[in-house]
Amino acid sequence: MKELLQKYANTFSNQLEKMTLEENEQRSVNHPIVFLFLGDSVKEALTSIMTINEEKWHNSTGVLYFHAYQTNTISHDNVLSIQLPDHQFDPKTIRRSIYESFCQDENLLIELNKTFRKLSSKIAEYGKVYSSLVKLNLCVVTAVDDPANILIQEFTLLLKSILQESFRQVEVDLYGLIKEKQDGKNFPLSTSLGISFFNELNQFQHDKYTFEKELQLEEDLRLPVVHPPSPLFDMVYLLSDKNEDGLISSDAGKQNYEIISNLNLLKNRKMITDYHEKMDSYNHQDFKRSFRGNSEEPVFASAGFSKVNRPNKAIALHAASHFFHELLTSLKASSSEKRENVLGLFELTEASFQKYYHDIIPSDEKLVDMNDMMGVSNSYQTVKRMSVKEAEEHLYEGGTERFFHTNFKEPVSEHLQTMNLKARIERCLHENVINNEKYGLYCAYLWTSDSTGSNISILDEIHKMIREAKNERAEAEARLEQLYHRIVDSCDFKKSYLPFSDKKNLTSFLQYFFEEAYGLKYQMVKLEVKQAILKQYHVVLQENHQYLRAKIEIVDQVESLLKQAAAESLYDSDEYLDKNIAEYYGQMISSVTAKLKEKRGPHFFSDERFFGNLLSFLENGATDLIERLLFVCNREVLTQEEFQRSFEDELLERANVMTHYDNQDVLTKEDLFKQLNTRLSENSSIHIEVFNYKQEHRYEEKYFFGDFHSKFMKFALEKEQETRHFKVGCAHEKNSSGIEKLTLMGGFKLSDLMYYQRGEKYYKAYTEKGYEFHSKAVNARLAAYGLEHFD
Asked: Are residues 532 and 525 in contact, defined by beta-carbon separation less than 8 angstroms?
C-alpha cells in the first residue's frame, strides 16, 4: 500500500511538472545527444540521468545511452551496452590488464563496432524529435576511480569517428565523477586509481595530444581512427561528492546527476523566441575561452546545483490524508440522528410492530366469538360467590383455555418457531442505512454498537424494549392473577338487582370476563411476539456489527496509513520550504470540500463519482479503498485551482497560514525572495574542492532555470547583477513547482585539486610497491610526444 501512495505522490508531482512544461519548448534539446557511460561504477548514474532526462526533456525519447560494463547493466529500449573483460584481475595491474585484454580480443572489438553503428542508425531513426541534425553532442561519463576508464580514449574516439560519418560536427564532453567519502573500502587504492586517470586525462587534454589506432572494422578492412593534435574532450567537468567548502553531502551524487542533465540541456536547448537581453543565454565556446584564459596547461571545469521546489509529494500525501479525514467526518456527522428517526430506519417503531402483530397474531376480533360459547349453567346466582377462576372452570370446564390456545397461542407459537427475520433486518440495515447517501457505513457501525456515547445505539434500544416488554408482560400476568382471585360479584361490571335479572347479570359478567381476562392474555401474546422479534434483531444486528467492525478497522487502518505517510513525507523536510504543510493543506482541503458540497450537494461523498457505498471498497482489504481514494484525489481534488498556485504565491501564503495579519512576523514577498535567493546561492556551491591559493584563474557563470517574467526571477537577477563579478543568465521556462540554479566554474588545473594533492602520495607509494596503473602502450605513445612518463 505504501507503494500505491508513493506512486500517487510521484504522479501528482510529475503531473504538475508536465502542466508547466507541456508548452515549454525550452525543455527540449536542439541537437542529438548520446551518453557514453564507462565502467560499473556509473550504472547508478546511467539510471538516474536517464530518469531525470525522461521527466524533464520533452524529446528525451530520442536520447541514446551506451554502457560499457564489466558485471551488470540495465535493460532499456534506448540503452545499448557491451561487456568488458572481467577476469578477476590482480589489483596491482587491474587497469593495465583491462586495457590489454580489450586490445587482444578481436571479437570484442568487432562487437563494439557493430554496437556503435547500431547506435548511429538509431539516432537517424529518432531524428524527427530534434530540430537540427547538423551537430551531435557526445557526453562521456565515468567515475575517476573505475579501472575501466583506461579505455576512455579508444571508446570515445571510435564512437566519435563512426558518428562523424553521419554528423558534420561531433562535440565531446567528459563528466568525471569523484568519490571522496571514505566508506570502509580500500580508499588509498581507489584514490590511486583516480589519480592515475587524472594523470592520463591531463595528457589527453593537452593541445599536443594525438591518437591513431586501427579500431574501425569494416568487413575485412581495418581502418585507423585518427585524432589530430588537440585535446581529446571539448570540455571536462569534474564533479565530486565534496563541495568547495570541503563538505560532503548525502545528496551530492543525485545533485551531480542533475548537473549533468542540466548542463546538457543548457548547452543544447532551443533558443527562445522572445529573447530578452537580461536573460544572457549560455554560450559554450565563450565559457570555455573565458575560463581557460592564457593557461598553456589543461584547465578544467566544475559546477554546482541547487533548487527550491514546492514539496509536491508531501502536498499530495497530506491532501489525501485530509480529504479522507473529511470523508470520515462527514460520515460520522449523520450519526447524531434523532432516536425516533433511527428506530424508523430499522423498522422498530410502534407502527412497525403493529404490522408484525397483524402478520403473526390472529385478529382480536376472534375474542368476541368466545361470548357465544355455551356454559354448563345459566344462573348468575350459582357463580356469584365463586372466584373468577372458579367461575370459569365451573361454566366452561376448560373450554375457554382450549379455545384460546387453539386459536391464538398455538398458531403464534408455530409462527415464532419458523420465524426468520434476518433477511428483513439486513435489508433495513443496508437499504435504509448503509446504502443511504445521508448515513452510510459509519452510521451503521455506530448505531449497531453496544454503546456509542452521545449517539443512539440500536442494541441499547433493543435491550430497553425487551426489558419493557418483559415488565409489561409481568404486569399483565399480575393483573390477570389478581382478576382470577376476585369474587365474581365484586367485579366491575354492570349488575341489575331487579327480579328476574339473573341471566342478564351472567351475560354482563361473561362479557366483562372475556374482555378483561382474555384481553390481558391477548396482550401477553403480543408482548411474547415483540420479545421474539427484538431478540432476533439483537442477534442479527450484533452479527452484522462484528462484520461492520472488521470493515471499520480497515477504514481506521487506511486513516492511520495515510497519516503516517503524510508525516513521513516530512521526516527529511526542509524547515523553510516545507513549513506549515499540514495546517495549510488542511485548510485547503476544507475549502475544496465545501465547494464540492455546494456544487454536488451535502452528501456528495456518497455519489458514485466519489465513493458511493464505501462498503464495496472494503471487501478485499484496504487496497481497493486506498486506490479509490487516490483516484478521486487525482481527479477531483488535486485538479482544483487551490493546487495550481505559482510556486512563489503558494510558498508565501503557506508560510503565513499560522500568522495573524496584525502580527509583525508576517513574511513579506520581499523577505521571501531574499530567503529563496540566499538558499539558492548557499546550496549551489561548486562540487569540487580546489586549493584556493594555488588556483591562478577562476571564472564563473550562474544560470537560473525558471520563469524569466516572474517577480522572483527579476529580483534574483537584479541582486546578482548588483555584484556582477561573473556572468548571470536565466534559462527561461515556466515552472510553477520551483526554481533551479546552476553555477559553472572553470580555470583550475588538476594539481589544484585537494583530491589530487591528498591522493598523489598514495599513487606514488603504490607505484613504488610495483603497482602498474597505466598500459605500456599509453606510456609509449605519450612518451613519443614528449609528454610525461607515468610508471
From this structure: no
Q: How many CA atoms lie within 13 A of 569 on its CB side?
A: 29
Indicate the angle between helix axes 410-418 and 519-568, nearest 10 degrees: 20
* pLDDT cut 90: percent of the chain above it: 51
Neighbours of 377 (CB within 10 A): 12
Mark residue 398 as left, alpha or beta (left: phi above 0; alpha: psi -120 to 50; beta: remaining). left
- Asked whether the beta carbons of 577 and 308 are under 8 A apart, the reply is yes
Does the pLDDT of residue 478 top 90, yes or no?
yes
The rounded mean pLDDT for the chain is 87
Which residue pairs, CB below 8 angstroms and at least 24 apart, start in 72-76?
72/40, 72/43, 73/43, 73/46, 74/43, 74/46, 74/47, 76/50
DSSP 314-354: HHHHHHHHHHHHHHHHHHHHTT---HHHHHHHTT-SHHHHH
Buried b (16+ CB within 10 A) or exposed e, 146-156: bbbbbbbbbbb
Record the cell numbers describing residue 359, joined without a space: 402478520
> What is the Cα–Cα distance from 611 to 623, expressed in whole angstroms?
14
Give which of 729, 725, 730 is closest to 699, Cα–Cα: 725
Cβ atoms of residues 138 and 170 within 8 Å: yes
CA distance 207 to 229: 6
9 DSSP β-pair partners: none
**DSSP sequence for 639-691:** TSGGG---HHHHHHHHHTTTS-TT-TTPPPHHHHHHHHHHHHHHHT--SS-B-
**DSSP single-letter state for residue 619:** T
Going by C-beta distance under 8 Å and a sequence separation of 6 or more, which residues neighbour residue 718?
none
User: What's the rounded Cα separation, in Å, for the pair 327 and 629?
Assistant: 10
Q: Distance (Å, rounded) from C-alpha 224 to C-alpha 719?
A: 54
Please say whether the dihedral angle defined by the alpha carbons of residues 302, 306, 312 and 313, taken in this order, is positive or negative.
positive
Distance from the first to the final alpha carbon of the chain: 57
Instruction: Report d(CA 716, CA 709) in Å as an integer.
Output: 12
Q: Return the C-alpha cell found at 683.
A: 546550496
pTM of the predicted structure, to 2 decimals? 0.76
The DSSP call for residue 613 is S
Phi and psi at residue 182, in whole multiples of 5°?
-85, 120
- Rounded CA separation 566/320 (Å): 9
The three three-digit cell numbers of residue 611, written as one number: 465513493
Handedness of CA 197, 199, 205, 210 (dihedral sign): negative
Distance (Å, whole) CA 466 – CA 174? 87
Residues 79-116: tens digit of each pLDDT:
999 999 877 888 899 999 999 999 999 999 999 999 99
Which pLDDT does position 278 carry in this prediction?
A: 58
Q: How many residues does the chain have?
A: 791
